[in-house]
């Protein structure tokens, strides 16, 4: 099911529930009821609960957005380090250079075409990707430099392999959901309490009041959907992309 369809259904359901409650609640209230008699303390509590929940929502959105940005940065660092390995290996003999570049290309192809889907579906990296990276490491570290120029290039290449390994590990750790279950529990309960408090103000069936109640509930549903969508940096609509790999290795014609 499309994520935008899920969002639409969630917002529509939130509006429908709130409007249905308002409709049946109005039928229960007697004609002599006066909504202006709502105690001031209830209005104050409703306002404070809304403010507190808005702060919580803002922090949650900022947290998952920061997690998505960090995941994208790990991808960029990994792609850049692999590009550096491929470029800097030009000082080595043709056989060694070609082997390094071929293994780098194989690793990048596997990450984009296979491992990316694994991260989206299961939030983890694969053992095969680690094996391909280990092959690159051995290509670089097992070669003994024959000239001073090759010796000067050796340590920077080793450092770039370490950067790839570090970025890959960070990418794997950031592939799963970032919001703990207890936080989701608090967000959902807070949404129910916040929306429920509007009924403490004795909402009526006037078009203006029902419209505002429906829009408010739809807004809460949208913000919760936004947090859910950002919560999986590699797995949902607004997710980190493999664009750094595509940009650094255009000759592989990836992502087609």
Describe the structure.
- This protein has helices spanning 3-28, 40-88, 94-122, 127-141, 148-173, 181-197, 207-230, 243-248.
- The protein is mainly α and 256 residues long.
Brief sketch in words of this structure:
This protein has helices at residues 3-28, 40-88, 94-122, 127-141, 148-173, 181-197, 207-230, 243-248. It is an all-alpha fold. The longest helix has 49 residues, at 40-88.
Q: Can you tag this structure with a few keywords?
A:
transmembrane helix; DUF4239 domain-containing protein; 0% strand; mainly alpha; membrane; 256 residues
Net shape: elongated
C-alpha Rg, in Å? 27 Å
Give the ordered list of helices and strands. HHHHHHHH
Q: Specify the helix fraction band.
A: over 70%
Total number of helical segments? 8
Which percent range describes the beta-strand content?
under 5%
Briefly note the structural class of the backbone: mainly alpha
Q: Average pLDDT across residues?
A: 82
Number of distinct beta strands:
0
* Low-pLDDT windows of residues: none
Oligomer: single chain
What kind of sheet is the major sheet? none
First-residue to last-residue Cα separation: 23 Å
Write the layout of secondary structure elements.
Blueprint: H1 3-28, H2 40-88, H3 94-122, H4 127-141, H5 148-173, H6 181-197, H7 207-230, H8 243-248
């Amino acid at each position: 099911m499309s994520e935008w369809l899920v969002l639409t259904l969630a917002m529509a359901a939130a509006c429908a529930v709130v409007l249905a409650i308002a409709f049946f609640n109005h039928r229960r209230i007697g004609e002599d009821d006066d909504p202006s008699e709502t105690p001031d303390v209830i209005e104050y509590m409703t306002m404070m609960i809304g403010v507190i929940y808005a702060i919580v929502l803002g922090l949650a959105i900022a947290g998952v957005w920061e997690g998505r940005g960090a995941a994208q940065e790990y991808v960029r660092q990994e792609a850049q380090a692999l590009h550096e390995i491929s470029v800097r290996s030009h000082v080595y003999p043709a056989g060694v250079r070609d082997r390094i570049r071929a293994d780098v290309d194989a690793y990048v192809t596997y990450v984009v075409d296979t491992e990316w889907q694994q991260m989206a579906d299961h939030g983890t990296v694969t053992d095969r990707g680690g094996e391909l990276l280990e092959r690159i490491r051995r290509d670089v570290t097992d070669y003994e430099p024959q000239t001073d120029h090759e010796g000067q290039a050796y340590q920077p290449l080793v450092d770039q392999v370490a950067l790839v390994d570090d970025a890959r590990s960070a990418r794997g750790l950031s592939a799963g959901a970032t919001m703990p279950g207890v936080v989701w529990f608090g967000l959902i309960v807070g949404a129910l309490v916040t929306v429920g408090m509007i009924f403490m103000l004795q909402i009526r069936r006037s078009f203006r009041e029902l419209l505002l109640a429906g829009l408010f509930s739809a807004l809460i549903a949208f913000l919760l959907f936004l947090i859910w969508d950002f919560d999986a940096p590699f797995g949902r609509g607004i997710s980190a992309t493999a664009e750094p790999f595509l940009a650094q290795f255009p000759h592989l014609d990836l992502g087609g």
